[in-house]
Amino acid sequence: MADLAYRTLVYVHLLLFVLWLGADVGVFVLGQHFRRRAVYDLPQRLVLLKLLVTVDMVPRTAWALMVPVSLSVAAGGGWAVVPVGVIAAAWGVAAVWLWLVWDAHLHDQTPRAKRDRTIEFWLKIGLTLGYLGLGGYWLASGDAPTWLALKALLFGMIFAAAIMIDVAFRPVGPLLMRLIADGSSDATEVPLLAVMNRTRLWVWAVYALLVATSWLGTVKPG
């Protein structure tokens, strides 16, 4: 029974990775089409943007669930000693995180959503530091295989890069409102495009880190 539970967790872990990266690629493609002002008119582009926001909930959900699932897999496979209390806390954090993400999505453009996203921002900073610290501790102590320690470090770096996506994307809201109010022109489009281009650099960083992390978890070098 324990072996079946572990293999099921590994499957869920893999499924979350597929949903995270696959849906994120969908978000990227929709964003690329939104940029094509010569191909789509503004109402069509706003529909694409609405679809983008909806699809983006898949990687955001997978990301939150990956935290407790990854720790559960590490403990269930005997790869590292992870106290039961830590795993329970991770599931609790994931539940809070999911509520914040979905509550903000369902109440978008309200003070409630702004509050949710502020709490989520600081939660992600805490998790970033937690995973970087965990990976560093495992590397120094040898309490986990080197590949697992590196995977924890890379996961912390994914958090950091994803936080930077949100930070870089913040100016999009006011710029988008200006685009809707004033219509499409160089004055409204160029600043928006510049912000999206800067954000895209962090998106590529997340993709690269996700691929590297999955390679470590699959190949388990050393």
Verbal overview:
There is one protein chain. This protein is mostly helical and 222 residues long. It has one domain. 86% of the residues lie in helices and 0% in strands. It has 8 helices and no strands. It has helices at 2-34, 42-55, 57-76, 84-106, 111-141, 146-169, 172-182, 186-219. The two termini are 29 Å apart. The model has no long low-confidence stretch (mean pLDDT 93).
Question: How many DSSP H or I helices?
Answer: 8
In percent, how helical is the residue content?
Answer: over 70%
Residue ranges: pLDDT <50 for 5 or more in a row? none
**Main β-sheet, in a few words?**
none
Give the helices and strands as they follow along the chain: HHHHHHHH
Residue-averaged pLDDT: 93
Q: How far apart are the first and last residues' alpha carbons, in Å?
A: 29 Å
What is the general shape?
A: elongated
Number of strands: 0
Radius of gyration: 19 Å
The overall number of domains is 1
Structural class: mainly alpha
Summarize the structure.
By secondary structure, the protein is mainly α.
Descriptors for this entry?
222 residues, mainly alpha, 86% helix, elongated
SSE blueprint:
Layout (H helix, E strand, L loop, with lengths): L1 H33 L7 H14 L1 H20 L7 H23 L4 H31 L4 H24 L2 H11 L3 H34 L3
Helix pairs in contact: 1-2, 1-3, 3-4, 4-5, 5-6, 6-8, 7-8
